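INPUT
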Amino acid sequence: MTETPLMLFNSLTRELEEFVPVHPGEARVYSCGPTVYNYPHIGNMRAYVFADVLGRTLSWKGYDLTHVINITDVGHLTDDGDAGEDKMEKMAAEKAQSIWDIAKHYTEAYWADVKALNIREPAKWSVATDYIDEMIDFAKSIADRHCYELDSGLYFDVSTVEDYGRLARAVTEEGEGRIETVEGKRNPADFAIWRKTPPGERRQMEWDSPWGRGAPGWHLECSVMGEKLLGFPFDIHTGGIDHREIHHPNEIAQNQAFCGCGGLSQATNSGAKIWMHNNFLVERSGKMSKSSGEFLRLQLLIDRGYHPLAYRMMCLQAHYRSELEFSWEGLGAAMTRLKRIVMAVERLKDAAPGAPDHPRFAPMREKFAAAMADDLNTPIALVALEEALAVKKVDAGAKRAVIEEMDAVLGLGLLDLSRDDLRLRPQGATITEEEIEAELIRRKEARAAKDFTTSDAIRDELSAKGVEVMDGDPLGWDWKL
Ligand SMILES: Nc1ncnc2c1ncn2[C@@H]1O[C@H](COP(=O)(O)OP(=O)(O)OP(=O)(O)O)[C@@H](O)[C@H]1O
Ligand SMILES: [Zn+2]
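OUTPUT
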């Protein structure tokens, strides 16, 4: 099942490339983490479901995975270019709270979502403010050849590296008008790698540096943590597709400078060999974003009666490079699909362990392997899993082993989920699950006794409480909310 070469889409070349590890047998992956000034929205979490599927696929292929996800607690401005304020400082001022408390609160909220979505813990959560000394050292090492100082900070001169912005394409294709200019910049795309605290101001987070008191630039953070924890070049760098435009081209420019080459060959000098980007989760009104104020949190989905893994299922149903539009109907459909699978898996739970290589499952395992090796094609992999589940009159232990093997990659936690886990009641519902089950037993008895008046009355009562009775559902779900 693990022979097909793993092909991944590299944003740098805009081509599918075979994954060939830098260090034989290993896979080193860095994912840009959340900026912890607010709750993550489900769009942000799509980025981590994607990175998790990538990591699980690498593990399944037998690589020894080291995954790092950072926590950005300083430096990310309200504009990805150099305009605006620090997102963390702004929120701390609005809430009149310590920035450290804000970071702690939202980091914990993010971790809760990570857990609920069955995202595996990375080898390390690297917190940006733990690496300030290393950032200063990194900046010092490139400052002479690649940077210049303005009153507002130390700026990176993008003309000092070759092929700046190749990753983005848009920068050269559409011009650089998107990037707000700061007076004195040599090139519009130049960016701050150290921002000085303006005279007379005090920031909650600031440190001394050779360029004055201030804070590191957001792009510098990821370059430094990637280099420190994984070493250049590492294998794969991930992030949302917005990062392909500014954040990652800037990281790459710094990495080229740090490697001392500034050469054309970004393939060896961009810090990572493969850069991968997940597309957006969008709503009808556009990209979901924290900065816009209104957004969907995973907790809201749970409060409305959806299991968090229904959202993971929704993500898996789309290829990571396609835009995914969120709708409650779509989430409902994903939830139903998950329930059907869980129902079928439940029958396998007691089976004696078997081996997955039973010949009846060979076509599905092959289809699954080919799909995942084809740039993580989870929609097709899910179908392969369902086809394996549907195989009739076969050893249950072998089937269980096949499902376990596939689910180790998809991460739905199918063998740990039960029918009861999926019967979440929306917050505010006035009836408990025990009461629903009790009413349904009463109704079954009434129907057995051909007392249809009582049975209909019970159905209507339940319906008034928001519970829909589903007679004859082939999967045996007798009710839904
Ligand atoms: N709507 C979305 N769909 C998928 N991924 C997203 C979406 N919005 C942001 N991301 C990704 O989520 C990850 C975390 O982003 P981060 O916490 O820095 O968000 P942000 O830029 O502060 O918030 P926002 O862009 O929502 O205002 C990044 O990899 C980013 O590219
Ligand atoms: Zn980053």
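end of record. The first strand starts at residue 7 and ends at 10.
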